[in-house]
Write a structure and sequence with these properties.
Elements: H1 2-25, H2 28-32, H3 46-69, H4 75-96, H5 100-121
Helix pairs in contact: 1-3, 1-5, 3-4, 4-5
Protein name: DoxX family protein
Keywords: Membrane, Transmembrane, Transmembrane helix
Subcellular location: Membrane
């Protein structure tokens, strides 16, 4: 279980660090021009997109660093919970925009983050 949680957390951390970092450094207009899956940015201000990206980068760091450094490892499931909330918002945005195929992608990320929340608060919690 612990290995599976580390793998899922690592994959999520990589995806959100790169995706969130892209949102932070790339202008909203360029993100929107990237393709159909990025049209959601039209529903948010430039600052809102950068805020989402910043939260994703922080959550990515929170999935790994507290456990690796053994400093407040309880932050790992809290970071994952933050990603669950972000992905719930992403899912709602996709539903509102009638982007059904992309809802499945967002729900997959939500479930993976939820697995980390469940595992790190429950059966594979980090010992104190």
């Amino acid at each position: 279980m612990n290995i599976a949680l580390w793998i899922v957390a690592g994959v999520l951390a990589a995806a959100y660090f790169l995706g969130g970092g892209y949102k932070v450094v790339t202008p909203k207009e360029k993100i929107a021009a990237a393709g159909h899956s990025a049209q959601w940015v039209e529903d948010f201000s430039s600052g809102g997109v950068k805020a989402i990206g910043t939260l994703e980068v922080l959550a990515a760091l929170g999935l790994i660093l507290p456990a690796v450094l053994d400093i407040a490892p309880v932050l790992v499931p809290l970071a994952a919970l933050g990603l669950v909330l972000i992905m719930a918002g992403a899912t709602a945005t996709r539903i509102r925009r009638h982007e059904a195929a992309l809802v499945l992608v967002d729900l997959t990320y939500l479930v993976l983050a939820g697995f980390v929340v469940w595992g790190r608060f429950g059966p594979a919690a980090f010992g104190g």
